[in-house]
Every structure is written in structure tokens, then in C-alpha cells.
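Duplicate of #3305? Posting structure anyway:
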């Protein structure tokens, strides 16, 4: 059990507060605090509080609102650690975002953590919870709609969460097959330069999907599923002429699909199926002047009944904190380029002496 002090000790000027937390289980406390107390340090930096750990006792100091926020974050991490899962720094960021969304949903007398973020659960991975409000919306849309578009930069969990959702649907018996696809579009290379037959040529483009699958399923189950046809991983070109029923179909890197390919793919949807389309419209590898099918499809279909749309941003990057900053730097540069005034032509110059 974890016991939180009933009251915050506030300074007379109301500018500071202090709260104590005792974790009775030292092993679980170590899962919450992280290796070398790295989770504690992250909470300190993100919430601008001071956390002093002495064994399994923790004292939180700072602004009253920040102290309350830190307490709720630690409650969430403690609840997850009790199930035996060590809290990562990504889990810390997710708990901070979750508590920010909840606001003051925790009354002072509350003893247990409450959660609002959606989660998916698979046999291998167990429960996986959204880490940001946009990811939470994404997971809600996946459960609500038959067709969902997810657009956003790298590292926001678009593909990973979609694969996890697909695996959970398969394990629950909602669908009978998983069909996972990507356009085989090269960034600077040609398929013909790669050795092997067609499958060996396209495997590098589908590797991220294989990796996500094996995060949520035992590798032997994945291999057996691919042999029996329960799981199919194929390039987009192989989808033509098919009707995909009772399946969960994922198109990843959809910004590299042409408008014609996107229309072909979307019209494969059959009875009892779900479809997820993910991509980053800012990173297309299509030839110059060719319109991305993802951008066109979002513009045309976003208001249709049964279609969900989620846009993720740099704030939703969950890979590594440096990736978040890298994405932010590129997006800031793109904004500056768009806002830059166009160069003056010769006709605009003032030729007066």
C-alpha cells in the first residue's frame, strides 16, 4: 500500500507546499522511482518540484498545484508498478499528460488513482495506455469508427498503437485476419538494386510493421499466423482486386500512396472489417508534383459518418525526448519558411533615380 499525507503543509504566503508519500513495498518503490531515480528526476524537471527520496519515503515540495500534480502522477505510477511493470520515462510523461487532462478530478480524500486515458490490452503486452490526450483520442476513435485516419510526425505511436489495436481485435475474435500494408516507395533507392525475389525486396519496407507485431504477439504466433494466412503483411500494390472482409486492415506510411492507390485501398473494405490509415503528410517520398493520396483522402472523407480523423503533433512524440525536440525544430523551420515573404521580382523594384 501507498499512504499519502492527508494535508499539504503550505507556507504562510501560499507560495509553497509540501506533501509526503510512503511506499510500503520497497521493490515496488524501486519500480516507481526508476533506475538511479531517473523517474523522480524527470518529474522534478517536468513539474518544477523538488522530490527527496529517503528509502521508500518521498517528500514533494513546490507550488501547491505542482505538488498536487506530482502526487497524482506518483499515484498512477504506483498503481501500474503494483502489477509488476517498471515505470519508464515514457510512462512518466504519459502520467503527467494524463493528470493535466484530468485537472482536479482527484479530491483530497481520494486514496486510489483514477484514470481517463484509453488503453488496449493484448496477451503478450498486457494493458497499454495512451500517453497524451491526442493518443487517447486516437484510441477512442479506433474503437468507435470503421475507418480511422491518423496523421502526424514520426514517434507519435500512430503505427504502433494501430497494430496493438488490430492484435487486440484479433485476440477478442472481433476480426479473423490482420492485413498490414505499406507502399513500397523508396527514399533515394530503387527496388531493382536490392537482391532477392519480390518478397525479399519489399521486406525492408515492411520491417517496422513486423517489429510492432512482435511487440504485441509472440514471434512464434506471428510466424504461424503468417503461414496460415491469419496475418498478412504485403505491399500496397498487392491489394488491388480484393474484398477484405472480417479483417483489420492497416495502411502505414500512407503519405506515399498516390491518389489512385488510396482510392483503390479504401474501396477494399468489406463486411465486418476495420481499416486504419496512418502517415505523415510532411514526409512524402512521391515524385515532385504528385499529390499524396493521404492528404486528398483526409480532405474528402473527414466529415463522412463512420470515419474518424486524428492529428498528432510534436507534443505527442513518445520515442525519446530528443526526438520530440528534433521534430519541433523541423516544424518550426517549416513554419518560418511558410511565413517568409516571397522574393520581390524585378518588376517590383523601384528604378527611380
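Output from current build:
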Amino acid at each position: 500500500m501507498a499512504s499519502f499525507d492527508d494535508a499539504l503543509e503550505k507556507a504562510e504566503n501560499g507560495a509553497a507546499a509540501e506533501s509526503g508519500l510512503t511506499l510500503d513495498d520497497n521493490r515496488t518503490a524501486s519500480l516507481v522511482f526508476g533506475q538511479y531515480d531517473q523517474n523522480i528526476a524527470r518529474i522534478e524537471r517536468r513539474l518544477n518540484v523538488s522530490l527527496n527520496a529517503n528509502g521508500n519515503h518521498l517528500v514533494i515540495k513546490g507550488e501547491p498545484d505542482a505538488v498536487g500534480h506530482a502526487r497524482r502522477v506518483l499515484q498512477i505510477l504506483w498503481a501500474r508498478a503494483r502489477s509488476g511493470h517498471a515505470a519508464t520515462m515514457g510512462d512518466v510523461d504519459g502520467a503527467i499528460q494524463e493528470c493535466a487532462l484530468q485537472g482536479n478530478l482527484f479530491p483530497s480524500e481520494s486514496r486510489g488513482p483514477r484514470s481517463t486515458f484509453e488503453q488496449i490490452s493484448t496477451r503478450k503486452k498486457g494493458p497499454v495506455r495512451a500517453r497524451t490526450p491526442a493518443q487517447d483520442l486516437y484510441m477512442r476513435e479506433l474503437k468507435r469508427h470503421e475507418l480511422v485516419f491518423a496523421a502526424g510526425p514520426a514517434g507519435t505511436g500512430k503505427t504502433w498503437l494501430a497494430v496493438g489495436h488490430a492484435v487486440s481485435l484479433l485476440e477478442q475474435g472481433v476480426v479473423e485476419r490482420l492485413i498490414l500494408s505499406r507502399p513500397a516507395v523508396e527514399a533515394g533507392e530503387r527496388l531493382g538494386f536490392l537482391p532477392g525475389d519480390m518478397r525479399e525486396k519489399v521486406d525492408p519496407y515492411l520491417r517496422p510493421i513486423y517489429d510492432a507485431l512482435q511487440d504485441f504477439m509472440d514471434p512464434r504466433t506471428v510466424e504461424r499466423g503468417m503461414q496460415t494466412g491469419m496475418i498478412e503483411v504485403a505491399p500496397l500494390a498487392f491489394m488491388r482486386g480484393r474484398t477484405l472482409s472480417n479483417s483489420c486492415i492497416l495502411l502505414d506510411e500512407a503519405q506515399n500512396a498516390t491518389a489512385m492507390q488510396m482510392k483503390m485501398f479504401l474501396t477494399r473494405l468489406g463486411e465486418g472489417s476495420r481499416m486504419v490509415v496512418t502517415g505523415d503528410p510532411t514526409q512524402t517520398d512521391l515524385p515532385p508534383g504528385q499529390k499524396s493520396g493521404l492528404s486528398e483522402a483526409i480532405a474528402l472523407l473527414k466529415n463522412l459518418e463512420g470515419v474518424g480523423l486524428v492529428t498528432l503533433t510534436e507534443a505527442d512524440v513518445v520515442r525519446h525526448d530528443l526526438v520530440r525536440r528534433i521534430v519541433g525544430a523541423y516544424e518550426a523551420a517549416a513554419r518560418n519558411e511558410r511565413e517568409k515573404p516571397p522574393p520581390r521580382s524585378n518588376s517590383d523594384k523601384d528604378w527611380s533615380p
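Confirmed duplicate; merging threads. Residues 198-216 form the longest helix (19 residues). The first strand starts at residue 2 and ends at 4.
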